[in-house]
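Progress report, Aim 2. The chain analyzed during this reporting quarter is listed below.
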Amino acid sequence: MMNARFARATLGIAALTAVLPAWAQTPAAAAAPAFNGADIAWMLISTVLVLLMTMPGIILFYSGMLRTKNALSIVAHTVAASAVITLCWAAIGYSLAFSHGSPFFGGLERVFGEGLIGKKVGAHIVAPTIPESIFFLFQLSFAIITFALVLGATAERMRLGVTLVFAALWSTLIYAPIAHWIWHPEGWLAQQGHMDFAGGTVVHVAAGASGLVAAWVLGPRRGFGKEPMVPHNLLITVLGAGLLWAGWFGFNAGSAFEASARAGGALLATQVAACAGAMLWGFCEFMRRGQWSVLGTMTGAIAGLIAVTPASGYVGFNGAMVIGAVAGVVCFFAVVGFKALTGIDDSLDVFALHGVGGIVGTVLTPVFATAAIAPVTATVLTNTIGALAVMAYAGAGTWIILRAIGLVVSLRVDAEQEKVGLDIAQHGEMLAPNA
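Predicted structure tokens for the chain:
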């Protein structure tokens, strides 16, 4: 009898709750997120894949292309910067990027990870089927790799202490606002319909512009244009490129924020563009000098991956193939000619590869986007304006940050330390005894 009464009472309460207006229901009942286990699992995997792109992906890719005496320094700079960015992202960067605020930056509701840990953690408006803590980590992995890309432009001469301060300021004042502009619904470029599925503008255009300005502010390496500066171990670079390629599946397909057909389509587009970029770069190289190099093939694949990043969740097979092919050709000529044309010592061609590839993909995304996959909200003009705005802001911000740091300390090691190599001079270590 008691069980029957309890059941009737429960049904009565449920019926009453069902007819109450939303404002009269309990906040917990109204706000309870509907998490999806498959989406959570996929986003955890994607987050790890993107983190692997930096450590060890970028580390190996960059280190192999440096001279032996500086091969370990890029490891130190990347790992140290990743640690600093993680702490800054938790303290304020994430809140500025992804909390409610203005069209230009978010508010302070998530400072120091407020509300991101515990049983009551909710979901972010951009990713409603996963806990916001996972969304936080996924976006952190993007913030880390974006700055890691910039380090390729300043390799072999920037002081480690400068890198730490630069990483903290850049991730907070440059990257976080740009991410808000494009990836938060309130952002001014998002409201214009700017299409950037996984970071062609936010990551690659921003990193390319910042890397170019940073290289210009620091000045060229000793012997630039006069001494050979050849990679010390291309096999390491190829291993790093392979990790980048594999991690890019999490980078692009993970940006669907769900285990779905769209995520699968983004993964397919990623593979197709990478292969098209590799083939067209190799073809250009063969036509220019009669050889098809391993480094060129892998660099072409990276160019295709960069260009398809903003388009991966919007285009089909044909669009991905064309975007990757165009990037392979355009980035090839940018890498071959940019340093000679400008005299700027962008050590590992960050602008010529990431900046130019990001622009190519950003501009071509609306051209090949199809409404059968997702709404087409931008035009070529819309995306071009967005890319130019990000370039201008990232470039100017980088110049201001580095000039401000330079008022306090020297940005680069002295001539003797650079001659000896950063591994010994800055870290007291060497890759090999005969380095």
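The radius of gyration is 23 Å. Residues 278 and 297 are 5 Å apart (CA to CA). These observations will guide the mutagenesis work planned for the next reporting period.
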